[in-house]
Amino acid sequence: MPMQNTLEFEQASRTVTLRDIADHCGVSVMSVSRALRGDTGHLSEKTRDVILATAQTMGYDPSRHLAARRLVHHRTGQAVRNNVIGMFFPMEFDLYTYFTTIFRGVLSIMKQERYALLADYIHQPGVAPLAGVFTRGDVDGVIGLANKIDFAPLCDQLRREVMFHDKPVVSLLEPIEGCSSVLVDDFQGGYLLAFHFLEKGHRHLMHFCHPEGEYPLQQRYQGFCAAYRDRGLDPVEHLHFCMGELYADVSYIAQFIEKELAQYPEITGILARNDVTAIKIHDALCAMGRRVPEDISLAGYDDTDMLFDAAGRNMLTTIRVPLLEVGQAAARLIIHRVTGQTPADEIISLPVTLVERHSVIAIRE
User: Fold this and answer.
1) Are 121 and 160 within one domain?
2) Which of 5, 25, 105, 318 is the most buried (most CB within 10 A)?
């Protein structure tokens, strides 16, 4: 049988090894390894070309052997560094400045430290399988930009993978057991925002932070309550939680806000969940014939999106969250965990600041 056909038969029947290539070429396994690595110091050009041509003809697949090498190292307790970090996003991440700003922060550090960043979307855990790059050991660690409800099950899924198992994970904005975390001080954010309204003479506020909801909203609600108590006011009596789908169309938002204001006509201000929903609430209030801030004051959160007044200026009072810095801190932390500079999981919390504009005004007593 001609050599070409023999090689094709072997390629189809089993995985080709370095030994196979060495035997066909009449050289050592070390010579084959050097040729495939591009080492030009120990081989003649002719020998190298023969080895490379033979490897290609036989269908040698280095990725299979890399995976095997990783598995051997894993069993012996040795780490194989890829200089690749995985990052999980919610499906709609590219539509919101909030997410893309964090991503830019992560990317800036990855480029600086010469790490590759591998992005994937969070699918329904347990239904959609993990991509092979996560199960083969191709990534050194993972950053998760998603709420705990979605990301915690995915972490569990990663931990069950032999080739991932105990690699470091950094969660963003919500703490998750068994992970490092980069958080922002949402308690401080809630406190600053509520205190600002109180200083302007407001007492009854509508908000969307359920005290048993997502961790950041819980923290923000506790901040609201602390500000009220510091002013000698009962938060239960003055804070009015509104349940509603804030990403719905403006007419729907107008309906549930109008219902809340009819039930509690003493409300003079609204604390939106974020700037995006503050803009929708503003449009809903306008559709109801209510002016911001003349009839009702309004504040956002995050400082990512603008609400323009008649002069084209951003009028939205908000809490500035250092989103770029959140991404940068997460990238540094995951790299330090991978390299062992940070030997154990760590929680980092970044401060927020109040940005006063003119969507919140003083009210007459």
Assistant:
1) yes
2) 318
Give me 187's structure tokens. Answer: 């308690």
* pLDDT, tens digit (0-9, with 9 covering 90-100), for 300-321: 999 999 999 999 999 999 999 9
Q: Domain holding 149: CATH number? A: 3.40.50.2300
Q: Are residues 284 and 255 in the same domain?
A: yes
CA distance 314 to 359: 9
Return the closest-CA partner of residue 204 out of 223, 221, 228, 187.
228
Exposure class string for 78-89: b at 16+ Cβ within 10 A, else e: eeeebebbbbbb
Domain that holds residue 44: 3-60
CB-CB neighbours of 228 under 10 Å: 23
**Number of Cβ atoms within 10 Å of the Cβ of 199:** 12
Which strands make up the sheet holding 347-350, listed edge to edge?
116-121, 84-89, 141-144, 169-172, 180-184, 347-350
Left if phi > 0, otherwise alpha if psi is -120 to 50, otherwise beta: which for 201?
Answer: left
What's the pTM value of the predicted model, to 2 decimals?
A: 0.79
Does residue 276 sit within a domain? yes
- One domain, residues 132 and 222: no
Looking at residue 95, what DSSP letter applies? G
Number of H helices, E strands in the chain: 14, 12
For residue 128, pLDDT beyond 60: yes
**Residue 63, token pair as written in the block:** 């990725």
Residues contacting 275, CB < 8 A, separation 6+: 300, 301, 302, 303, 304, 305, 306, 307, 316, 318
The answer on 313 and 204 residing in a single domain is: yes
Burial bucket for residue 66 (CB in 10 Å: 0-12, 13-18, 19+) = middle
Angle of helix 97-113 relative to helix 323-339, nearest 10 degrees? 40
Peptide bond into 322 cis (omega under 30): no
